[in-house]
Amino acid sequence: MFVNRMAPAEVLSEEALEILDGGWRRIVREVGIQFLHPQALAILEGAGQRVEGETVYFDPDFVAERVALAPSEFTLHARNPERDVVLGGRNMVFIPVQGPPFVRRGDERRVAGIEDFEDFCRLAQELDDFDSAGGLPCEPSDIPVESRHLDSVRALLTLTDKPFQGSQSSGTAAADSLVLGEIVFGGEMLATKACMYTNVNANSPLRWDDRMLDSLLAYGEAGQAVVLTPFLLMGAMSPVSLPATLAQQLAETLVGIALVQTVRPGCPVVMGGFLSATDMQSGAPSFGGPESLLGILASGQLARRFGLPWRSGGGALTSSPAVDAQAAYEGTATMTAAFMAGANLVLHTGGWLESGLVASFEKLVVDLDILRTLRNTFTPLEVDEASLAFDAHVEVGHGGHFFGAAHTMERFRDCFHRPLLATTQNFEAWEEAGSPDANERAGRIWREIVDRAEPPPLDEEIRDAIDVFVERRTVELTGRAPEPRVLRERAAEPVAAGGRERRRGRRAR
Amino acid sequence: MFVNRMAPAEVLSEEALEILDGGWRRIVREVGIQFLHPQALAILEGAGQRVEGETVYFDPDFVAERVALAPSEFTLHARNPERDVVLGGRNMVFIPVQGPPFVRRGDERRVAGIEDFEDFCRLAQELDDFDSAGGLPCEPSDIPVESRHLDSVRALLTLTDKPFQGSQSSGTAAADSLVLGEIVFGGEMLATKACMYTNVNANSPLRWDDRMLDSLLAYGEAGQAVVLTPFLLMGAMSPVSLPATLAQQLAETLVGIALVQTVRPGCPVVMGGFLSATDMQSGAPSFGGPESLLGILASGQLARRFGLPWRSGGGALTSSPAVDAQAAYEGTATMTAAFMAGANLVLHTGGWLESGLVASFEKLVVDLDILRTLRNTFTPLEVDEASLAFDAHVEVGHGGHFFGAAHTMERFRDCFHRPLLATTQNFEAWEEAGSPDANERAGRIWREIVDRAEPPPLDEEIRDAIDVFVERRTVELTGRAPEPRVLRERAAEPVAAGGRERRRGRRAR
Lengths: 509, 509
Known about the structure:
Two copies of one chain form a homodimer. The first copy, chain A, has 509 residues and is α/β, with parallel strands linked by helices. Chain A has a domain at 2-10 and 66-377: Trimethylamine methyltransferase-like (TIM Barrel). Chain A has 19 helices and 19 strands. Chain A has helices at residues 14-31, 38-46, 60-67, 114-126, 148-159, 171-185, 187-192, 210-221, 242-263, 290-306, 325-340, 361-377, 390-396, 406-411, 427-432, 438-452, 460-478, 486-491, 497-506, and strands at 2-3, 33-35, 50-52, 55-57, 73-76, 85-88, 91-94, 102-105, 108-111, 197-202, 207-208, 225-233, 269-272, 274-279, 284-286, 310-312, 345-346, 352-353, 358-360. In chain A, the strands form four sheets. In chain A, strands 1, 7, 10, 12, 13, 14, 15, 16 and 17 form a nine-stranded mixed beta sheet that branches. In chain A, helix 4 (114-126) runs parallel beside helix 5. The two termini of chain A are 33 Å apart. Residues 488-509 of chain A have low confidence and may be disordered.
């Protein structure tokens, strides 16, 4: 996994940090936070906090003390132990886009379905750049909403062997995800180690709603990793001031973490942030601007004060509707900020388009080039006497070239980063080839990767148990059996070229 | 002008800095540097350096002592004193693309001409983002090569009132540029202050050629600012090792600076760097990769050790032949590195395309959005009690929105960065508008700016003196009078809508 050894940017003075610390403390104490969840209210009241109606007025020191119980780093286990990741410290974990209801494949933009979801899983599995497929690379809308989490988690567990996100769409979905986790990891391991994570969003401003609290409590009680992320579009869910938004972000995450730590002290958590500006002319979200970049840098500094693993808001975010220059510069800017800020967990690192409404396969490839460049740039340069290659200078002398130098000949194959997508083709050759822009070339690249993808090995008994559970729960939740799935067909026969052929036939290109 | 107050990235350890310091010292002492210029050789020999043939073997301490004579910052004057810039410290000076032989306007790619040159001058003048048009935003190939510098400098002096670069294409061009500078600034000012700069490139590896040395000596003797920039494509002009390339870059710039300081102690100089990788499969240059980004970060750290203003290799560089996602992510990466590294002078901040072969008007607009975002991001966030907007939280409470809050209503017009190019339009509205991507929208933006551009005021006597000199020298250098130019026609009549109409009619769209 990637370790970011570059010193993180420090954009806040000690005085600014103190003011922001005072900010969240005053919010939780004087305005309080709403919890639309009787059990959560009871837990917090039982822990000594003042509750009026659905609002909890916190003692900030209580919050800080509970937050201090969370580990500063923890291992998130994968069903393949080689894919385990450590969250915290200088580690960075990368996950592709999460959540879009639409997908874009080349020129085709449509409502997302389970096949798209599965293809994103395949890409996340094949590409070492990603540490996990997350939990919802796109919304599989062709599956009934009641049982959608079952097909989603099954795809994550069978098409990838990397860490996965359990569903947080409802308490039921959380409970089912935990059962599936138990099938894969076994009860003892699940009881003692983080074998999945979930991501819960505050219903900002200053509110945690029942659905998210159901999940927070379910995963928290089970000791699984909880990522707590306010989703703050300044002007809409928070004031049009970045410091005010940072204070609010702290208030919302910290009380959520305090709740988790009250339910299960020491439960692994990730302090999340996701803030951006709003286009105040239209009310539309706007990504990749300076407010979001400064927000990422400041959020990192704040998270480090609490000694917590943290998730940055970015990823390669953009408002652009096309895989064009805007998509790339906004995406590069937010992704770079995550590196500069030393984020530990970075969602949306591949495929985010159109303010998160669209999961784009081409954009994922664009983002890979960005991601790889940044990973290499944030890897310290090794400088020693040998690296000075003095003999090459003696050999080449004045005004010559180094193409044929012995030093070059020994190293030319792997001396430089080789981009996946970027071309250095000269104009004439490029025109000859049909002038394919980055978007067009990206289309060829992801299709090749998906076509060559094979599901990672999985014990047949576990695979059967997953299927049996998904089938039973689908019937219970929807009143009917699940649609026969390609995935299931493949499970019944050895994975071979024939399976891929059928898949290729079914998939819309 | 922009002041970058973010602490620059530190990618080299003290030990690495010492090794690189030893690296350049060994090169200049043991391999030496070639100077294809008898006068330069005589000057250096006279200063006590060992000369064999055209190679100078330097005492590294001599080099360091002479370099120490250069000012750590200086004012570069403009003909409009409000446009003066200070090079050094935390200041950043931004200049659009320099040097391409081709231009791209939308779908049209062709050999550049003087009208393109003039339009880049108009953009650089109209846009506060740029501190100067530089010296050669593109090569005006429709002007005879012997007199090209005259039309170029005239356009810079009449279409902009910002600092300008004198021509370095030959000793003659340098001398003529200095005369034009004297016409505009007066002899006394030119003799005592930096009223123009020039950029000279080493003929790497380890060679300074006669043409560049002619310019270096002409501007250096005149006390004008000299930017010294090795152009290093690793694998071609330097070894395939970044540390080796950094040591070479230091060797080449430092001896050039030592020469300038020997000719005129205290002459303002800028330590330049421009290094990138080569695609070792094709031999083509490759921009925006991790080697160039780390190279920029390391170059900044090295330049600061010498206390010199420095020029980064970036700008918004890219190898892409199209204004597409690749162009934007490579460009954003190199431009961000220049900010992270705390560069003082940044050429190619708008319009660079196709490895610098093409000056693209659309790309310039893309780069403006990047540049503006970075300028805002690298401006410290102000955090005080008022910025916490506590009253807005009290007003909005839990689960509401901030669109109508008093705090928002007072600030919504200018609370956020407003991009020039990026859209937040929803998909349906965007599709309705014809699905214009960033490249297409950029075309509308630059055309509007060029169309509204007016030349800045210029004393009529000075204007006439420029024209008389350019005409006389053109006859002397080419044997024939210059072509009647649009610029000259406009000079004979008041600048008004009619002038713009004619320009619009003449310009290829």
